[in-house]
Amino acid sequence: MLHDPAQLDLMFQALADPARRQMVDRLSRGPASVSQLAEPLAMSLSAVVQHLNLLEASGLVRTQKVGRVRTCQIEPKALRAAEHWINERRLSWERRLDRLGDFLAEN
């Protein structure tokens, strides 16, 4: 997933929405049903399902339906991919700033 720019774009798009980030935050504490995820949100159940569909398409969340209950859980691999991408950029900038600091200290 990390090497697929389209998948990474979809993941960051999914995380760009506050409601979806709230769902991911809730799921980071453990699995939850769609109804449980919808409870604190000021939106219809169908809107929650649309948000979940995007989270699932991005790879951040996976769902399983047992009977009438759809249970969602976080996909840690996807979060690691986003974390890796961000860390690569952070390390690159830290190296650049360290070189700048060294240069400025010499002059």
UniProtKB/TrEMBL annotation:
Matching InterPro entries: ArsR-like_HTH, HTH_ArsR_DNA-bd_dom, WH-like_DNA-bd_sf, WH_DNA-bd_sf
A Pfam family matched in the record: HTH_20
Gene Ontology molecular functions: DNA-binding transcription factor activity
HTH arsR-type domain span: 1-94
PANTHER family linked to this entry: SLL0088 PROTEIN, TRANSCRIPTIONAL REGULATORY PROTEIN
Identification of the protein by name: Putative transcriptional regulator
Lineage: Bacteria, Pseudomonadati, Pseudomonadota, Alphaproteobacteria, Hyphomicrobiales
